[in-house]
Fold this protein.
Amino acid sequence: MTKMIFVNLPVADVAKSTAFYEAIGFTKNEQFSNEQASSMVWSDSIFVMLLAKPFFSTFTPKTIGDAKTTASALFALSFDSKADVDTITDAASAAGGTEPHGPEDMGFMYSRAFEDLDGHGWGPFWMDPAAAEAGPPEHQPIVEA
């Protein structure tokens, strides 16, 4: 079976968040969506579940954080070109998202950042395929846990 990832995000307004994610290129899977949740498809193996905060709270006893003021995760998506990175980030801004900082171009890798309507952070990036195969450049430190 193909490995898949389902990112569950608490949102204030499922309909508005659904429209935002559709505007940046996700597709809504109607089969797994209702007024409490939208299943947003990025690829055959990556899905984002937009869950109304009361519904999200049924999955955890923890307090739901406010992603507009607290960061606990950032989600990165790879793209085939710098232009594709720009396209999704510009679409996010046009759909009501924010861009917390400008582009970062390290030559072998290009990235931008945006936050959705609820403050969830996304980092679209492009990496030169040859650079990715060769590994990180010597001047870039590798942080190990």
